[in-house]
Amino acid sequence: MKYFKIIIPNYNNEEWIEKCVNSILSQTFDNYMIIIIDDVSTDNSRNKILELYYNNPDKISYVFLENKRFNGGSRNVGIETTFFKSEYIIFLDSDDWFVDNNCLQDIYNLIQQNNMPDCIRLSYNLIKGNESTPIILDETKPEQLVKNCNVACWLKVVKSELVPLFPENTLMEDVVFSIAQCDKINTIVPIKRPIINWNRNNIHSCSIDTTQQNNKWASSQYRYVADLMDLKCTNEYCEIERITRLNACLNYIKNGIITQNK
Q1: What angle do CA 196, 81, 99 make, to 5 degrees?
Q2: Cα separation of 109 and 105, whole Å?
Q3: Pairing mode, if any, of strands 60-64 and 32-38?
Q4: What are the φ and ψ backbone dihedral angles of 185, each rounded to 5 degrees?
Q5: Model pTM greater than 0.90?
Q6: What is the Cα 183 distance to its own chain's centre?
Q7: What are the residues whose beta carbons fall under 8 Å from the beta carbon of 45, sequence distance 6 or more?
Q8: d(Cα 13, Cα 18) in Å, to the nearest integer?
Q9: How far apart are CA 205 and CA 187, in angstroms?
């Protein structure tokens, strides 16, 4: 069994994916497996992935999707992969990278020192232009975590059996996933130094390219409402957050705010 499964969804990130993967391969802790899921890229991403794989077949596996599934669906392929098992799952976007070579070792040490908690909360550097701004996240309880707007799945390292599946065919998968995630975990330990470099210099990123966003943003809002309505929470704090997010999105739709650049 591997200790970490590192899931990387990729779409048209040929410029960044090598940097992302090499930041993992250079880690001092080496009990991990990377799985890259390419979501029907139209650039040179697949050749880059094959090159990375051929040079590191014992550390990298990959799946080339034939039909587009967006980030949620791509990550689900990684979650459901069964040819190897892991204690914990880490998500990393293909245009982001680890801060230094000791990130996995520091995460592992924290897990061991705290009797294998359900979740390690990660901090990050916001990379924009030539500036790097550290953002420290330090929640220790799921009722705190579920309310934080930093919902990105790559900000949490979670026991594999506690990782739910993502909503698919939408750009708004992270919020629903985060609420579902917080409903499953009990113990959280934060690592109070940046672990991930969040890259805001990728002009092709779906979260930056408003043209690309708006092609899917309106339908994503309606799908988001449906996903929130379908979500079943067992903890009251998750149910409150679900209803709060649902009402906010219904308000946006009612007021015609269904594009990202308005």
Answers
A1: 10
A2: 6
A3: parallel
A4: -100, 150
A5: yes
A6: 17
A7: 10, 11, 12, 13, 14, 17, 38, 94
A8: 9
A9: 33
**What is d(CA 60, CA 57) in angstroms, rounded to the nearest whole number?**
5
pLDDT at 117: 98
CATH architecture of 2-254: Alpha-Beta Complex (3.90)
Q: How far apart are CA 196 and CA 19, in angstroms?
A: 13
> Distances from the Cα of 57 to the Cαs of 4, 144, 182, 219, 259, in angstroms?
16, 40, 34, 39, 42
Name residues whose C-beta falls within 8 Å of residue 32's C-beta, 6 or more positions apart in sequence: 2, 3, 4, 5, 6, 24, 59, 86, 90, 104
Which amino acid would we find at residue 8?
I
Taking all residues of the chain, what is their mean pLDDT, rounded to a whole number? 93
Assigned token pair, 58: 């014992």
Q: Strand, helix or coil at 234?
A: coil
pLDDT in tens, 193-236: 999 999 998 866 766 655 555 567 788 899 999 999 999 999 99
Three-class secondary structure of residue 48 per DSSP: helix
- The answer to whether the beta carbons of residues 77 and 63 sit under 8 Å apart is yes
| Structure tokens that stand for 65 in this block | 């999707």
Helix (H, G, I), strand (E, B) or coil at 189: strand
Residue with tokens 């779906």: 206
